[in-house]
Design goal:
- The protein is of the alpha/beta class and 221 residues long.
- It has eleven helices and five strands; from the N terminus they run H-E-H-H-E-H-H-E-H-H-E-H-H-E-H-H.
- A five-stranded parallel beta sheet has the order 2-1-3-4-5.
- The radius of gyration is 17 Å and the shape is globular.
- It starts with a helix and ends with a helix.
- The model has no long low-confidence stretch (mean pLDDT 94).
Length: 221
């Protein structure tokens, strides 16, 4: 069993005792490493958020683990950041990433009617801040490629009647790169970086339901 399979098995066990109908964060390491519950506690915020990110996951793998990472929890709201590992692979095109992403969204929507899904813009990278061993990956996963993928993610969200959100403004330097002080190795984000994201993310976490199906369900309850 590899680390991703072990993580999915762990989530399946944790889901058995979780509250249904809450908020889920899912995706790859950029989501798994988001210290959302630590930050909620620091702010005295009782919002229930389950982080179901899986380090190293690509879109195809999230699709395969979707029960553990989303569906078991029947969430009312899902925040997704998936696809950056695909973008690091030169053999995978942006259109292939979006085809898998489309399947992910469709499966969630079919399993959880009325769910509100937020497709988070991919975070920028910083080639210049990366150590030598990371530079090869960042020659493939460039900010230009990330921008192109974000444009397609926004279109995908619109087709599904879901939301695309870009909360990267405080992460970027004057050249549009991930600020050097917010990155571990040019690609992953440190705690200080996540704290800047948190401030812009929480208004979306807290906003009133905007999916008509969810609004109707809320009124019935």
């Amino acid at each position: 069993m590899d680390e991703k399979e072990a993580k999915a098995r762990q989530y399946r066990e944790e889901n058995k005792s979780a509250q249904l109908g809450e908020i889920v964060f899912t995706g790859s390491s950029l989501m798994e490493h988001f210290p959302i519950n630590q930050l909620l506690q620091e702010h005295g915020d009782g919002t229930i958020i389950y982080n179901r990110g899986v380090s190293g996951a690509v879109t195809r793998e999230l699709l395969e683990m979707l029960d553990a990472c989303v569906l078991d929890l029947r969430p009312r709201r899902v925040f997704i950041n998936i696809g950056t590992n695909d973008l690091s692979d030169p053999s995978i095109t942006i259109s292939q990433v979006m085809e898998n992403y489309d399947r992910i969204l469709s499966r969630i929507e079919e399993a959880v009617p009325g769910v509100e899904i937020y497709l988070m813009a991919y975070y920028p990278v910083n080639y210049e801040a990366a150590p030598a061993e990371m530079k090869e990956v960042l020659r493939i996963r460039t900010n230009e490629k990330i921008t192109a993928a974000n444009q397609e993610a926004a279109k995908l969200a619109e087709r599904h009647g879901q939301r695309y959100i870009d909360i990267n403004r405080n992460l970027k330097d004057s050249q549009g790169r991930l600020k050097a002080e917010y990155t571990l190795e040019g690609m992953h984000i440190n705690e200080a970086g996540y704290r800047t994201i948190y401030e812009d993310l929480m208004p979306f976490v807290k906003e009133e339901p905007w999916n008509p199906a969810l609004q109707a369900s809320s009124k019935e309850n």
